[in-house]
Amino acid sequence: MLTLTSPVETPLHRLPAGAKLAALAAFTVVLFWLKSPVALALALGGVVALHVPWGAAFTTHAARMLRPLWPFVAVVAAWHLWIGEAAAGAAVILRMVTAVAAANLVTMTTRLSDMITVLERLAAPLAPLLPPRRLALAFALVIRFIPTLAARMVQITEAWRARSPRRPGWRVLVPATLAALDDADQAAEALRARGGAE
């Protein structure tokens, strides 16, 4: 499994994880209050400005993390152009890209262990119903597996294209699902070997 934390050290890495997550939550709420594409574009510019000072490698890595978002951007843009509401579509796209870019910035500058610690503290009131450690572990596994599953999907798609002139489409879903289940089984075995989530 891969880590999403950037290897490029920045001053943002030294800020407390709780403060960054709280700021992200507040910023996201503000984004959903904003309706004007101009205001949303300024918000996106502010997020970009937080990336640029840390160099080309950091900014390029952040841009690569946005790649899975572009199909959704294309669908939203095509739909709003079709119904003749370009301004509303621009607002939706800007809000979506800004929110994901801000979340990526927090993820890139915060160690997963620090985020888990914050989540455990927040989940403490749920302890009688759900052990906070298990909830935090589930959160960590989801974050860690996202890039792994994306890379596995790319490998399966490339393998299909190497063997067939047809577009892979839905045909890769079954092997991708089986690969995800296999990865999950291996992770479960590794957890059991280390004493579980307790």
Description of the structure:
- This protein has two domains: 11-110, no CATH class; 120-193, no CATH class.
- It is built from eight helices and no strands.
- The chain has helices at 17-33, 37-51, 56-65, 70-82, 86-108, 112-123, 132-163, 173-193.
- The protein is globular and about 55 Å long.
- The model has no long low-confidence stretch (mean pLDDT 83).
Strand count, sense and closure of the main sheet? Answer: none
Q: Taking Cα atoms only, what radius of gyration do you get, to the nearest Å?
A: 20 Å
Number of helices: 8
Number of strands: 0
What is the string of helix and strand elements?
A: HHHHHHHH
Main features:
single chain; 198 residues; mainly alpha; 2 domains; 8 helices; 0% strand; globular; transmembrane helix; ABC transporter permease; transmembrane; membrane
Summarize the topology.
Layout: H1 17-33, H2 37-51, H3 56-65, H4 70-82, H5 86-108, H6 112-123, H7 132-163, H8 173-193
In short:
The chain has helices spanning 17-33, 37-51, 56-65, 70-82, 86-108, 112-123, 132-163, 173-193.
